[in-house]
Amino acid sequence: MGVDIVSWLDWVISEREDAAAKAQESEASVIMRRCVADRMIIDLHGYRAHSCPTYDCDGDLSEHARFYDHEVCPVVQQLANGYGWTAGQTPPIEGDRVT
Questions:
Q1: pTM for the full model?
Q2: Domain presence at residue 42
Q3: If you average pLDDT over every residue of the chain, what do you get?
């Protein structure tokens, strides 16, 4: 999958935290709450053995898929998509900024 998606997310969230330090107080608290929540999601789903609910053949959310330590579950993939992750992502270059 190219770059390690969990490491990429850590980098992106760190960039957001740095941006929060320069933002107005009310905006900074919103950014920081989001960063904390996203890090908690990564702690639960990022490269840890766990199971997540999945849709069955009828479209009902009633099955569970197991993910092992070396696998990335769809929750992490969707979180990364929200931050701008694309397939074949290249490693960040020093000086890159997250928008």
A1: 0.74
A2: yes
A3: 82
